[in-house]
Amino acid sequence: MSLIEVRNLYFRYNSSDRAVNGVNLDIDKGEFVCILGHNGSGKSTLAKLLVGLLEARKGSIKIDGIELNEDSVDEIRKKIGIVFQNPDNQFVGITVKDDIAFGLENRKVEKHEMEELIDKYSTMVRMNEFLDRNPEDLSGGEKQRVAIAGILAINPEIIIFDEATAMLDPKGVGEVMEVINSLKSKKTIISITHNLNEAIMADKVIVMNEGKVVLSGKPNEVFENIEILKNSKLDILDSMKLLEKVDNSNINLKEEVKTALWELTYQK
Amino acid sequence: MNDRIVFGQYINKDSWIHRLDPRCKIITLFLMMIGIFLIKNIYALLICLGFILLVVLTTKIPLHKFLRSFKMIAMLLIFTAFFQIVFNTYGEIVKVNGYDLTYTFTLTYLNLGIGILLIVLYFLLGKIFRKFRLIQFLIFVALIFLSEAFILIGPSIVSYTISIHENGLYTALMVLLRVLNLITLSALLTFTTKPTDLNGGIEGIFKPFKFMRKGVSIFAMMMSIALRFIPTLLNETSKILKAQASRGVDFNDGSFKDKVMQIVSLLVPMFVISYKKAEDLANAMEARGYIPGDERTRIYELKYHISDILVYIFLVLFLAAIIVLKIGGIV
Fold first, then answer.
1. Chain A within 8 Å of B291 (Cβ-Cβ)?
2. What ipTM describes this predicted complex?
3. With contacts defined as CB-CB under 8 Å, which chain B residues touch A167?
4. Does B303 touch chain A (CB under 8 A)?
5. Cα nearest neighbour of B194 on chain A
6. pTM of the prediction?
7. The dihedral formed by the CA atoms of A217, A222, A225 and A226, expressed in degrees to the nearest 10
8. Do B315 and B27 meet the contact criterion of CB atoms below 8 Å apart?
């Protein structure tokens, strides 16, 4: 049995045409899954459905064997944490310490235990020296690391990164990606992005377009379908563009060169 | 990022008042205020004020900060005192050295002119000296009255008499002293307590009352989020101001109609941003397990220390003294 089982999931917003149209998903424990899609492909909606922020019109979500519904949503939120895109809008506390404590306070963790957890996880994301700082004094990357620490402190089995690096500068992206990579194989990670570079290191890549899963599989399997990726309005990598040009032209390249180009694609 | 916006009035110093438990400070302030309202004796009020000022000295906060908080309501106080003195006609007329404090003012055409001239002068002066506007205003008012009392040349328009009565003087003084007491007390609280601690204190006070706990915890969360987002929203405001200014909106000049349009051009994006932020924040809070009104543990637990208990003992003594003196008819 998979850790996350999504069956035939439908959702539609009242005011916009963004939607999820019949998604099926299976994510195993400890997997690093990347959901790729352009803006409006339904990938963020899917994330919100998974944590119970939105209610599906049809279909079912099962997490760790528990079916997500109104009664089980509190139970499920203990198993699943989400880091959102905007670093500023998810910072609840007045200081870094307050913010990491927020989730723990909600779960009625005792004070001394909270102090230990805050210490442990702030050190893990290298924010332990900033505990008394206010959010205005932090960079976007630092705020996202605080958000990650806040999620880790609750110790969920699954962490969703909903375009967690999209609003950061390159330095911030590097810092946050480093933290995400360090969590690999410790947690089940769902990373939602439109950046193919971030998908390379995933165990499994799921490509979404118009609310449907159009491709799914290992990165190298998925990346071979350049045409579908392009139809999904994703920016393919430079080495893939080159390969495509070669394929469409009369140039006769040796297989070795092609292999080399593919290798370049997966290089990280 | 360098022009840090300090909100609230908290002044960071290290004193015993700063270290007091916020619950203790809030309760003491509140009950002392009620106590002071009960006092109707000027001397007792003076003693209170003296005592509060002594406490103020121990906070290490410079006195001029407290004076600044008086400034905001000085105008109101002066007007109240003025109207009490002039219009309250209860009791005897006050006598100084055997003379009644009764003055006759006459408005002549000449000092009507002088009055208008003085008003014009006041506004002109205001453009040059922006400081001490209140003192300037009072001086000009005094000058107008002086001219009506002494420059009595030419035909008069109207003549009136002001006599100062005991009751008016007494009430004026009492109102003044009472308000000074209250302002100093509340300034003492806000200067020595961080907004977050105030918030935690209010929540802590209502914690024992089960029936209102839900409402209070939601209210406290709202307050702390408001405190958290004030600097963020100010930041956004300055960004929008700059963006609009770069498109040619001039926020400094223009007619009233222009000003309204400028404010609209600021308010609309601010509302949109705030709404978006609120939605994101609500999602983040919900996803992190926040259930409004549910019981939560707190990372900052409030603990009473010996100094808090001493303050409470003082408070009980203070209230007891007022009640005893009240029954005895002294205050």
1. yes
2. 0.87
3. none
4. no
5. A94
6. 0.76
7. 160
8. yes
